[in-house]
Design a protein that fits this description.
This protein is an alpha+beta fold. The strands form two sheets. Strands 1, 2, 3, 4, 5 and 6 form a six-stranded mixed beta sheet that branches. The chain has a three-stranded antiparallel beta sheet with strand order 7-8-9. The longest helix has 35 residues. The radius of gyration is 30 Å and the shape is elongated.
Length: 511
């Protein structure tokens, strides 16, 4: 009797240990093929998929989500700086991992474990994403879903070690697609105005938790790096963004917690974390897309992202945008000079530094003295200390005394007149002059500056996807996640734009 039941019990124990019920082998005609083309969702369509995959609603949804991205060209690993072949065997393709990260963000899964559970529950999605499949003829799909997926730790490791250039590669793709989806008469407006802004990101450390106990003076001590995140930095969110020379690389951060930070709210005004900066463009009420982005430690100034932002946006647009809009933190001569060189300007509020009065200029472009007279140029020199960038500055003197004394007295009887007259110093570039001559009351300036609201809306959407409080503990993972969030936002904008065009087309034809 015992011998009769022993064999079935062994079979049942083995099936339970493997985590599945033992089922008869499924005919091969009903299973999906294990060998499928390399991940190329861009060219895939429902008609070309196996019947079982095409019938799965989740697979169709994510195929539509990811299908616009050029997965066939997705880099397996970063370019080797020294050139030549990499040693060893090639690593596993990173495309399926990154596609899974996008699914995680889209489905708002809080962790890699939750992502893996979701994928196990949707075998058709695992097939579509391109993970190597482990054959199992005893399953209905023809492959073992759990064994075909990496565990939670490899997901986290790939996100941490992935070169951000690979994520930036995916950010390239939706931008020309959005431009081409616009009505033909609006495409010329795409990228003509770019707007920049930054968003604070709280690190996942106990120092950002006001309920966590820390000794007095330790919570915001910049010399005590939080154990939970080795890369985050402490900084203060200003109620009013200072000019770039007021707080260049490191905003004023108290070394200790007492009086200076006593009135600041943890996580609202002062925090350990990062800053996510983005450069966007908007076309009327049709579209708002992210052109470039950068994640940096929170002790870096807002304007430190400017050069990289603009370079990436110019590359993706194929031309230098002529106009831009920023807040007061970007009131700098080199910001204005970038756009002045292409016949435009940056809509930036001017910051009066050191109580300096607004400058006026004569018809020849020389700065005017207090009496309204144009001051001639005495000499130029290279200034390497007072700005983030070296610039050519000019020294301008009293027009009544230089180059030759005219004999006329100073109209204002200025006391400097008897000592050689008034002298002023300023940059000689077009951008340095444009800071003062830009008409900030004009309709064009206000229309451009108002486009900054696109940044606020995109930041709000990114917050919904979890950008503000990531459950990650290093800058590399946070940086890659932020880039993928913006990829997802651009894809969503592309789908909305196409849906609107289709709706208007049906309306115009009366369908």
């Amino acid at each position: 009797m015992i011998a009769e039941v022993a064999h079935p019990l062994k079979r049942l124990t083995t099936a339970l240990r493997l985590g599945r019920r033992e089922v008869p082998a499924t005919p091969a005609t009903t299973r999906v093929p294990l060998e499928r083309p390399a991940l190329n969702l861009l060219a895939a369509s429902v008609e070309t998929l196996p019947a079982r995959i095409a019938e799965d609603a989740v697979a169709r949804k994510d195929l539509r989500l990811l299908g616009e991205l050029p997965w066939e060209q997705f880099p397996t690993r970063p370019r080797r700086p020294a050139g030549g072949p990499w040693p060893g065997t090639p690593p596993a393709p990173r495309g399926p991992y990154v596609a899974a990260f996008l699914v995680k963000l889209h489905e708002q899964k809080p962790s890699m474990g939750a992502l893996r559970t979701y994928l196990v529950e949707h075998p058709a999605l695992v097939w579509v994403l391109g993970f190597p499949l482990v054959a199992d003829p005893t399953t209905a799909w023809g492959f073992d879903v759990a064994r075909s997926l990496p565990s939670r730790k490899p997901f986290s490791r790939v996100l941490r070690e992935l070169d951000n250039e690979a994520c930036q590669f995916l950010l390239d793709a939706p931008i020309p697609l959005v431009r081409d989806a616009l009505p033909e008469e609006l495409r010329a407006q795409f990228g003509q105005v770019v707007c920049g802004d930054t968003k604070a990101i709280l690190a996942w450390v106990r120092e950002n938790n006001p309920k966590a106990y820390l000794k007095k003076g330790q919570r915001f001590d910049s010399a005590r790096q939080p154990a939970g995140d080795p890369d985050c930095k402490v900084g203060i969110k200003k109620k009013r963004n200072p000019g770039p020379d007021e707080a260049d690389e490191a905003p004023a951060t108290p070394a200790r917690e007492p009086t200076p930070a006593g009135s600041l709210q943890i996580g609202e005004d002062i925090l350990w974390g990062y800053a996510s900066g983005l450069l966007t463009t908007r076309v009327g009420n049709w579209c708002e897309v992210v052109l470039s982005e950068q994640t940096k430690p929170f002790n870096r100034s807002d304007i430190s992202s400017f050069e990289q932002w603009l370079a990436e946006a110019t590359h993706r647009l194929g031309f230098h945008p002529p106009y831009s809009a920023f807040d007061a933190a970007y009131d700098a001569w080199y910001v204005q000079d970038e756009f002045a060189q292409v016949g435009g300007f940056a809509a930036v509020p001017r910051v009066d530094k050191g109580g300096q009065a607004p400058r006026t200029f004569d018809a020849e472009g020389y700065p005017c003295c207090a009496a309204g007279l144009g001051m001639p140029l005495l000499f130029t020199f290279q200034d390497r200390t007072t700005s983030r960038h070296e610039q050519t500055k000019g020294r301008f003197g009293c027009p009544l005394l230089t180059p030759q004394p005219t004999g006329a007295p100073c109209p204002l009887a200025d006391p400097h007149f008897a000592k050689g007259g008034c002298i002023t110093t300023m940059g000689t570039s077009a951008g340095a002059r444009l800071r003062y001559t830009l008409d900030r009351e004009s309709a064009q300036y206000k229309a451009i500056y108002n486009q900054r609201t696109a940044d606020e809306r995109l930041n709000s959407q990114a917050k919904t996807l979890g950008i503000e409080r990531p459950k990650l503990r290093n800058q590399a993972s946070i940086t890659n996640t932020n880039t993928l969030i913006y990829v997802l936002l651009n894809l969503g904008e592309l789908f909305r734009l196409r849906a609107r065009r289709d709706q208007e087309a049906r309306h115009s034809t009366g369908a």
